[in-house]
From TrEMBL:
This is Cytochrome bc1 complex Rieske iron-sulfur subunit. Iron-sulfur subunit of the cytochrome bc1 complex, an essential component of the respiratory electron transport chain required for ATP synthesis. The bc1 complex catalyzes the oxidation of menaquinol and the reduction of cytochrome c in the respiratory chain. The bc1 complex operates through a Q-cycle mechanism that couples electron transfer to generation of the proton gradient that drives ATP synthesis. It is found in: Cell membrane. It comes from Microbacterium pumilum. Residues 1-14 have a biased composition (Basic and acidic residues). Its main location: membrane. It is a multi-pass membrane protein.
Amino acid sequence: MTLEKDPLEHERASWKPSPGLAVAVPDPVRDPELPPHRARITDKDPAAMTRAVRTVYTLFYLSVAASIWAIAAYFLFPIENGSVVAIRDNNLFIGLGIALALLAIGIGAIHWSKAIMSDKEFVEPRHATRGRDSTRLAAAQAFAVANEESGFGRRALVRNSMIAAVVASLAPGIVLFRGLAPFDSPLEPDAGNPVALLSRTMWKEGTRLAHDPEGTPIRAADVTLGSAVHVIPEDLADLSHTEGYLEEKAKAIVLLMRLLPEQLIEQPDKKDWSYDGIVAYSKVCTHVGCPVALYEQQTHHLLCPCHQSQFDVTNGAAVIFGPAARPLPQLPIMVDDEGYLVARSDFTEPVGPSFWERH
């Protein structure tokens, strides 16, 4: 292959400047140096500095007050009754308190840095070596200068108010963990026992399986091969929009699937828990309680979208991947005289996360 030559290559190689022609040679990059320092109003006027300091610590104390309000709102607007209004008010007022607390800290810190801390520009020479005694001494001196210029060690009121605001901003989050703790109630003896609460659901012998959310009973003949149906107890529809509905539904949700009967690997004591290849398993993941609702028809695997736990439907919903610690509880089912799928009993083990069982 022959490459064409640039027709101007010879002219470029032979070109020389004329004796009287001046050629511009670029200058080396010069240091632009620092611009002239512009003093702030707080540097010129002591009264302005005093106002800036007062503004900063006021913002920090406002943050403390907002954090206290968020904690108070947790108790003033409880959500134990489960009503939509109570949940709305609880989230609204706690959220406003936390948001105001963090916002006041942010504004106060920015105002401190812009109006109070020293803003003089300086050049810090850097050296190729590090770690010598002189370098360590210089670093310590730099920290001392930074402390002096920021006023952190000198302005005790600003410093202490900032520390109080940061510490107080953590308190609402810590208090909110109380909602995760079990509680005892004279009216509900098992209220403080999560294992007992998760061991009982609305399923009982003879309860029909119904479509979620409309509550229409399901005939066995209508469940097609490879399908996955979201199921609730038929009786749950009677509790719709009433107190306790969401709690009962969260425990009783089920996923119904139909496979070929010969594909099921069933334990001898669970042979009658399925009907003609139809099996029902709790939708509540045994890891942290997310809804297991993704079904692979070809592999017969159930997937949890939260942390990717996988369960084998053909083998008792055994865990085959992910952090889940135990299989999904199976709901024993049968068919009534009218051909509807009904439960043989409630779940025989607690539904939901297995961390309740740890000691």
